[in-house]
Design a protein that fits this description.
The protein has six helices and two strands; from the N terminus they run ααααααββ. By secondary structure, the chain is mainly α.
């Protein structure tokens, strides 16, 4: 789990830099104390204990919580889009994946 802690703080720092925000400014925008937010930022930044704080961050930056924690999109989301009816076109072939329910 140490990787998660380090990745979270680095990802958060990068997101803040992209928006040119300080810890204090981000804290004000998500209605949390500046000291709390500053503990999350950078290499070794701690993960928020309160899941609501992760939600506020993901909503503010318009990203998934998975991206906040791991620095990449959730692979389950991509698969979910395929399973829920997205058609895949490749060359001369068309593949359609449909979700089927099993009756007991």
């Amino acid at each position: 789990m140490n990787l998660t802690v380090n990745k979270f703080g680095v990802v958060l720092q990068q997101l803040m830099e992209e928006k040119n925000l300080s810890s204090r400014e981000l804290a004000a925008k998500i209605s949390l104390p500046a000291k709390t937010v500053s503990e999350w930022v950078g290499d070794g930044g701690r993960i928020p204990r309160n899941p609501e704080h992760l939600k506020r961050l993901s909503d503010f930056f318009s990203i998934s919580v998975h991206y906040l924690l791991f620095g990449q999109e959730d692979p389950k989301t991509s698969l979910g889009e395929i399973v829920n009816g997205v058609e895949i076109h490749s060359g001369l072939y068309e593949i359609t994946i449909k979700k089927v329910s099993i009756k007991k």
